[in-house]
Each structure stands twice: as structure tokens, then as C-alpha cells.
Design brief:
By secondary structure, this protein is an alpha/beta fold. It has 13 helices and eleven strands. The strands form two sheets. The protein has a six-stranded mixed β-sheet, sandwiched between helices. Strands 2-1-3-4-5 form a five-stranded parallel β-sheet, with helices on both faces.
């Protein structure tokens, strides 16, 4: 007779999943999970949080738990503000049914700030514990590239999402065509005919994110070609977070006569607007990226002029598809980089 699956019941962490299933989702041993669920001593806050996250992930993936086909554990690792990470998680979970009967079990590790060395250490942990593939949004650093190469040598494919690391050992890229986005932003700005000698504020969360850097280079090149008189004011480095971005913007615009336009490539737009208002600036055009909750509210308030959007669900479907093809399941997606959708206060989607 087969032994029954062991369930641990704890009033502080109610669940309905076998310890073995929680451990697989968390990427931990059953003994560690048992200690967390029973509130035993000598467990770090990070370990407790990972087990809690695993329980939430299992609840969101219950349809996948019942799937009879092949099961793959994929890791999604991202440095991004919570507002964007939340969107990506929802998009990833929404695409799972499209791969049935294969059961994709994503494990999410997301942080608002993650150094190159910290990210590399996390990827090394994933390599040691095992994974069928990694979807990665990270800074382009030597440590991260080395970790990707180590994963590749261990036959764990890495697909970069939303920001690429070209020339690394990654398998593929899934996300927006960032150079096209930068050119599109320049086109939209130039059509507003900014006056001679205008100042345009640009913000990136980090120049080390290759995707945002591609947007910036394409935007700058197009403005330089058509309107070399326009001055760019770089207020990057706030991590896409409101407070840090507001501080960067405030330092850069202090004492300037005017700011005619903003191109925000990395988010934190409430912080941008607050810093500009404090300095007495009201830009005529504000171009942003992504339809997160903050940007949707700002569009409704007519604080943003254009938002460059792309379908995150389609991006995650492509990313998962590349990993499945590597594992011998189906063909690699033939889709190119995501198309850009231009959203204004006049065409806000009714449902997102």
C-alpha cells in the first residue's frame, strides 16, 4: 500500500497541499518546508517568505496540478517595481492553460532592487537545485552573464524577458522591440513640434537594463538627427520607484527654465510628476511605458499623453514556448518582438 501524502496543518499558514508539492514549488527540501509550516526555530525570514510565496503560487496553479501531461518547473526571476512584477506574474499564470496537457509550474522570485552579484547568486542557487528553464529580467552585468553561461552549461535554458542580454548564453529574448519603442517615442514627441531649444527630461530606472538603454539610444539618435537643438536632461537611476525617481528628477531639474516633454522609460511616474510640480514645471507631453495600475490612473487623470504598451501575456507565452522547445516539446515560437500599442487618455482599454 502506498503511504499517504503528508499534510501539515498550521493555523498560521493554512493550505491544502502535500509538503512534497510545496517543497518542489519553493525549490527547498521537505524538511525545511516542514520547519516553516510548524513555526520551528532557526528559519530565516527569507525562507518563510519563499514558502508563503510557494503556497500562493500553488493556489494560482491548481489547474496545472491536476494536469496529466509532462510537468516542468520554470523559474521567473525579475528585478522590477512591484507594480510591474505583479502584471508579469498575472500574465504568466494566465498563459498556462494554453500549454495543456503540459503542466508548467512557474516559481517567481521578484525584487524591486537586485544587484548584479545578488542576481548571479540567485541564479546559481537555481542551477544547484534544478530547473527546466529560467525567464530572466536583470541588469546587464558581468556577474549575471557568467551565471547565465553556467546555467547553459548545466542544460538549463535562460530566456531574457523585456530587457535583453545580447551576446550572453541566453537561449532567446521575449518582449518589446525596445529600439522601435525609442524611435516611436521620438516620433510622437517631434509631431508635437516642441519650440526651438526645448529641454526634454528622460528617465531610465537603470542604465544597466539593456532594454531601457536601447530605448534611450534610439530616442536620442532620432532627436539628434531631426532636432539637434533639443536638450536632453537625464534623471536616471531611481530604479523605477517613486521616491528614488523623484529625488533624481528633483536634482536634475532644479534651476531649469522649463521642461517641455518627459520620456519615462523606467516608470516611477508619480514621482516624476511630483518632482516636476515641486520645481514649477508642467510638461506639455509625457510619454511613458506599460499599462500598470499607476499609469492607468495617470492616463485617466490626463497626466500622461502617450503610453507605449505591449502584451505581457503574449510575451510570457513566447518565453515559455522557447523553453518547452528546448526541452523537446513543440517548436520554438516564430513570433518576432512584441508590437507597440499606443494608448492615450482617449483610448484606454476597458479591461487589462
Amino acid at each position: 500500500m502506498q503511504p499517504r501524502a503528508k499534510f501539515i496543518r498550521n493555523p498560521s499558514m493554512t493550505h491544502r497541499f502535500p509538503v512534497k508539492e510545496i517543497a518542489r514549488q519553493a525549490g527547498m527540501s521537505t524538511a525545511t518546508v516542514d520547519r516553516v509550516l510548524n513555526n520551528r526555530a532557526n528559519v530565516s525570514p527569507q525562507t518563510r517568505r519563499r514558502v508563503q510565496d510557494a503556497l500562493r503560487e500553488l493556489e494560482a496553479q491548481e489547474g496545472q496540478l491536476a494536469a496529466k501531461g509532462r510537468r516542468l518547473f520554470l523559474d521567473v526571476v525579475m528585478e522590477a517595481p512591484q507594480r510591474f512584477s505583479r502584471q508579469v506574474r498575472q500574465a504568466a499564470e494566465a498563459t498556462l492553460e494554453g500549454f495543456r496537457p503540459v503542466a508548467i509550474r512557474p516559481r517567481f522570485t521578484m525584487a524591486e532592487t537586485m544587484t548584479g552579484s545578488g542576481c548571479a547568486a540567485l541564479l546559481e542557487q537555481i542551477r544547484k537545485k534544478g530547473s527546466q528553464g529560467v525567464c530572466l529580467k536583470a541588469r546587464d552585468t558581468a556577474e549575471v552573464r557568467t551565471a547565465i553561461e553556467s546555467l547553459r552549461e548545466s542544460r538549463i535554458p535562460v530566456v531574457t524577458i523585456f530587457t535583453d542580454l545580447p551576446g550572453s548564453g541566453r537561449l532567446a529574448y521575449a518582449g518589446l522591440d525596445n529600439e522601435s519603442a525609442g524611435r516611436t517615442a521620438a516620433y510622437l514627441l517631434l509631431k508635437t513640434r516642441p519650440p526651438q531649444g526645448s529641454s526634454v527630461l528622460i528617465t531610465l530606472s537603470q542604465h544597466a537594463f539593456q532594454g531601457e538603454e536601447d530605448r534611450f539610444r534610439a530616442f536620442r539618435a532620432e532627436l539628434s538627427r531631426q532636432r539637434p537643438d533639443i536638450r536632453l536632461i537625464d534623471a536616471s537611476g531611481g530604479g523605477g520607484l517613486h521616491l528614488g525617481t523623484a529625488q533624481e528628477v528633483g536634482e536634475q531639474v532644479r534651476g531649469l527654465a522649463s521642461i517641455s516633454c518627459v520620456y519615462s522609460m523606467g516608470g516611477g511616474n508619480r514621482g516624476v510628476l511630483q518632482a516636476l510640480e515641486a520645481a514649477g514645471h508642467t510638461p506639455e507631453v509625457f510619454i511613458a511605458h506599460d499599462l500598470d495600475d499607476d499609469n492607468l490612473d495617470l492616463l485617466r487623470q490626463d497626466c500622461l499623453t502617450f503610453v507605449l504598451h505591449h502584451d505581457l501575456k503574449a510575451d510570457m507565452h513566447v518565453a515559455f514556448g522557447h523553453i518547452l522547445a528546448f526541452q523537446g516539446i513543440g517548436n520554438a515560437p516564430s513570433a518576432l518582438k512584441s508590437d507597440i500599442q499606443i494608448v492615450t487618455p482617449a483610448n484606454i482599454p476597458s479591461k487589462e
